[in-house]
Design brief:
110 residues
């Protein structure tokens, strides 16, 4: 179902790590991030969007207008992973899975 669809809004540098993990990525800069996020919310493609807080520190507040009346997508603020992915030690998929589980309380298949 739609709940399974997850995307990550992040910068170009971090995007590579998520792509390797098989997660759909929406690339943005701090200038374009909010516009991109609002667009994706309106498209209704994803049930959950992980938002890099390096791009949008408080996604829920930033998108309040667009999210009004919508249950989905769930917006999951994630710390900027630029540093983590440069060391090839991070399993992005496991990290995302844990993050989502911790935040919304259930497993998703990435």
């Amino acid at each position: 179902g739609t709940m399974q669809r997850v995307a990550v809004l992040t910068d170009a540098e971090t995007a590579t790590g998520y792509r390797l993990a098989g997660a759909p990525v929406i690339e943005a800069t701090p200038e374009t991030a909010l516009r991109e996020l609002e667009q994706v919310i309106q498209d209704g493609t994803y049930g959950l969007i992980a938002v890099d807080t390096g791009l949008i520190p408080d996604p829920a507040t930033a998108t309040a207008r667009v999210m009004r009346g919508r249950d989905l997508p769930i917006l999951l603020p994630i710390p900027s992973l630029r540093d983590a992915f440069s060391a090839d030690t991070v399993d992005a998929k496991a990290y995302m899975g844990k993050l989502v589980r911790d935040t919304i309380g259930f497993d998703i298949k990435l």
